[in-house]
Structures are given as C-alpha cells and as structure tokens.
Amino acid sequence: MKRLGFLSIALLAAAPLVAPQAAQPLRPFEMADMHQLQDLSGPSFSPDGERIAYTVSGHNLDSDASVSDLWRASWSGGEPVQLTNTQFDSEWAPAYSPDGKWLAFLGDGSEDGSAQIFVMPAAGGEPRQVSSLPAGVTDFVWAPDSRRFALIAEDAPPPVRKDSRGEDKPVPPLVIDRFQFVEDYRDYLTNRYQRLWTLSLDGEQLTQLTRAPMDVWLPSWSPDGASVAYVTRTGPDPDRHLNYDVYTVTPEAGAEPKRISSFAGTDVDPYWESRPVWSPDGKQLAWLQSGEDKWIYYAPWQLVVADLEKGTERKLAHIDRSFYKPRWSPDGKSIYALVEQNLNTWLARIDVASEKIDYLSQGQRFGYDYALAPNGRLAELVSTDTRPFFIESVEAKPRTLADHNSFLSQVQLQASEELRFDSEGHSIEALLVKPVGYQPGKKYPTIVRVHGGPVYQFSHEFMYDWQLYAAAGYAVLAVNPRGSSGRGFDFARAIYASWGEADVKDVLAGVDHLVDLGIADKQRLGLGGWSYGGILTNFLIGSDTRFKAAISGAGVANVLGSYGHDQYSREYELELGTPWENFDNYARVSYPFLHADRITTPTLYQCAEKDRNVPCLGAEQMYQALRSLKVDSQLVIYPGQNHGLNVPSYLADRMQRNLDWYGQYLLKKRG
C-alpha cells in the first residue's frame, strides 16, 4: 500500500510537466455498434444476498445467431464474473437453489438442441444436464428443499418414423380440433399441451401433476413445499376465453388441483411474465388481475391478494396503472412490484395493510425486472434513453452492479425530450430525439415511429434504431396516442374496436406540433413501426398523404383476411364479434386495405416467415394492393423468423433497408 501511495504522489508531482491531452470527441452511433450491444436479463440473488446471477445476450456473427451466457455480479462491487462461455449454445434464466449450493438455468446445449434444465455449483464449475423432456422445458422453479424442481414442458411430439435406409419419413398429418389452432413460436396447436411436472435434482424422478387437456404456466412453490401454484384456463373449451385462473396442487401424481382465484376474467395472463407468489408464511397468494374477457389487454393489471384460510380475495392499491412481477418482502408486510407510469416504469413497495405505495426508483427510466434477496436487498434491471439494460442496486445511493456496454461512453447518444400537445381536447405526449449536431432553427427530415401493442407505450429506454436515425441526421418523433398504456383504462380503451381513428388523429397532431416548433421539415416526413406499429402505419398512410416514405413491419390491414389465419381469432371475436355477424366492424378496421386506392406514400413492407402473431399475409396483401396501384413498394420476408427477429444479419438488414428507404425519399440525392 505504501508503495502504491508513493507512486501516486510521484505521478501527481510529474503531472504539470506533461501536456494535457484533449478529450477524444464522441463518434456517432454506427451499425456495427448494434452487433456489439449486450442485453442483460433475468437477475437472481443468491440466498445470502451477496451475488446476483444474470443473463447476457449478444450477437455471434460467426454463426449469425443471438446467443447468451450466464454472468455473476457481486453486491459489494467489482468486475462481474462470467459463469458460462459457450460460443454457439445459450444459457438463460439462472436461479440459485434455496440452500445456496447450486445454480440452475435453462440451456440449449443438450444433444438435440432443446431447452433443458442444467445445474452447476453455485461458485461456478462444470454444468450437468438434469432434465431430458422430449419437447424441452419452458419454465422452472426450485422447490424450497433444493432437491427438486417444478417445471413446464409440452407433451412429446410424435416419434420420427424411419424407412429401411434409416432416413426420416414424412411426418404424420396434423389433426386439430382446438378453437385456437396456431400460436407464434409453437406453430400449429394439436392435442399437445403444456403440463406441470416435478423433477428431482438428480433427474431420476419425473412426476406429471396436470393431465387435463389444457395448457398451464408460471409454477410457484409454497414455502413449505407442500403445494405448487400455477396458472391455467379451464372449462369446456378453454381456448375460447381469457378467464385465466390461479390453481394449486399437491406435488404428487394424481393429486386434485384446487382453484384459488374466483374472478370471471383474467387472472395472470402468461404474457405478463408474472407468476403468482406466496407470502413467506404460506397463508396468502398474490397475483395480477386484469378485466373482463371483453377488455382483453386494454384493462390495467392490478394486484390481488388471496387469504387462503378464509378463501377471500382483495385488490391491493388500485391506481389505474399496470403492475408487473409482484414479490413479497421477506417479512410479509409488503409486496414489491414494477409499476408502469406515463413514459416510465418504476419499482415500488406496497404496504399490504395500509396499501401505501412507496416508489423506490423514479425519474426517466424503464425498469423491466428486479431481484429480491432473502435479506431484503434489491437490484433492478433498468434502461434509460442512453443506456441499454444494466443492473443497479436499490438503495439511497444506487450503484451500478453490472453494465456490459461501457463502449458506449465513446459514442454520441441522444436523449429523448418529452413533448405535450393537444388532440381533440386530449393531452397527448411524445418523445423527441433530435439529430446529432442539431442546430436550433433548422428544419430536419423526421421519422415518426408508432409503437406496437396496441396497448403499449414508448418510454425512456434505450432504442438503438432511434440512435441510428439520429446519427443519420433525422429527428425521431415517437407519439403515445390514445390506446397507449401508462395512462389508465379509459385512455387505453379509447381505440377499442376502432383502431386507426383516435390514434391516427393523435399521431398527426404530434406531427403538426413538431412542424409548428420548427423542427420537422413537413416536406420530408417518414413513418414506420412493427406489429401494431405496422398496422397503425397502414392506417396513417391510408388517412393522410403527407408522409413521403413509410415502413410497415409485421402489420395487417385486412382483418377479414386475418381471422382464422393468425393467433387472434379469440381476441377478434371478443373485441369485434364474428365477421359474419359484425361485418361493419371488420370493414372499419380493414380500412387501409379496402381503401388502398387512397394511398400514395411509397411503402416498404416487412414480415417474418414463421410469424403466427401477425403473419406475412398482412404485409403481402398490402404490398400486392400498392403494386396493383403502381405505388412504389417493396416486400421483404425474413426466413424462419417469428414475430421478433433474432438473426443478427436479419436485424442489420432490416435496419439498413430502413435507412436506405427513408434516405431515398427524405434526403437530398447525392452525386
């Protein structure tokens, strides 16, 4: 220590003799940076609260695949430690055993490439495969005794038939009699269901707990290990409704499940990634609850607590906002949860007795997940305008515990500014990203981004595409129109069964506002979005001709043609009714296709070949319509991809095509 101190003094003494170096100028965000970005997810505390395991995902350009490894950060600080390093395989969803001896996770390094449970010593070491389910494992949780798991796995597929040469024969015909017959990432839904199982730590004892013809999700062990809670839909035809319920079952073969929730609506939609959670004493269960079936995803998700002895339920701290990922405090007096606010998502602590909400994080940030230790320590997974996801301690003076994107400190990144404006008497909000090198008084080509959902919102989170647009000289306007989340039930349901009406008006009002501010060049306006963002893009170019270029990704415009083709027939019927009884409803939301002759905007259509969420049919129909009308258009299909692209070269291709398409119509041609 003395030697280090002496060296420091010597260097300080010599400092005046050395010419000061000028700070290196920041460079613009580039396409190559997109491949360098590391995405963090799934933080999980060790039982002693000293370590946090998490997943780091990035691009392997050699195999052209997105891959992930496990890392570990220390609560006390220091550099994170890499736990797995598999170049072509992935590991994710780490979870420490309650006794602190093991770290379990999902990985695709099995012989057949399916996702299975692996375990390694908690301190690190060689993993071993525990599960060998034929169709893989989609979710798992440790039992309190650290000797077994509860897991979710789909029924085994039919065996592959071989001919006399040992070559595979054609697969048998698919026979379907379910109402919902297709789902993104699962493809066609036959009589194979997701079941609840238990599996011993040595992988030898596998027990099936659910057998009824219905899918189950989100298992959760009781503290005494005597029961497992899970989520399912029941009834004569579960696919027809959204009445998800919470059940419990004794972890023994043949045990009879018990329904806990009583609401005739949605209790814990699996989409929310928020499993039911037991109080520390095992006497209460907490979960998230939405609205009646007909409101689908429009109603905010509220906290519900059930007293298991009394058989009663009560909503907790109703604030007309959505809660995410509830977890009980170690003393059982509070429940932690992420709470979506306007433009932000914060971590909160809710007092169970008084229902008082204390926000533990605030400001411009998007909290997506968090880890809670038995000793009460908290770590939040969070993103901001200029920082991809990182892990931060939740304390009086928060500390960064893990950040794998330090290279961005050398990059010029643009923060988002909040805008507010009026649309038909409603206060609408938007985020504005100004171009790199912005000069007040100068008008800029502007790209208007519209979000997916439809019930979702743009918030203060890192968006690499916005940074690339800003680096290319564009202003980026991201409007949260009526129909967006973060502002309560009434604001969200303003577009219920009437897509492309109020939200179109709000987006156009935002464009007018940015033009009035003297920032957007009204002669150089671009537009684009993915999923519902693609749908709304179709509505906007069908309603207004001001946009000089548009990009509609994974969208639809002919809902009459989508019914019975995508995974949403149930939701269509709940919101619009059936096409043969409610033709006017379907015609109204199919406006862009039925009135395609009003479109003059050159439009690039993009879709993913295996997308069952919003299939290519929607993009194909609109592309065909515009080609018929001789409007400049192009169709790009990404092979083998589902709704979310994950092949690095495809992600780069989409981004470059977007830049080229906008550049062709919004920027001055260069010699």
UniProtKB/TrEMBL annotation:
Enumerate the spans annotated as Peptidase S9 prolyl oligopeptidase catalytic domain: 462-666
Q: What is its EC number?
A: 3.4.-.-
Signal sequence, renumbered to the chain: 1-22
One GO BP annotation is:
proteolysis
Q: What class of enzyme is it?
A: hydrolase
Question: Which UniProt keywords are given for this protein, alphabetically ordered?
Answer: Hydrolase, Protease, Serine protease, Signal
Q: Which InterPro entries match?
A: 6-blade_b-propeller_TolB-like, AB_hydrolase_fold, Peptidase_S9_cat, WD40
A GO MF annotation of the entry reads: serine-type endopeptidase activity
Superkingdom of origin organism: Bacteria
Name listed for the protein in its UniProt record: S9 family peptidase
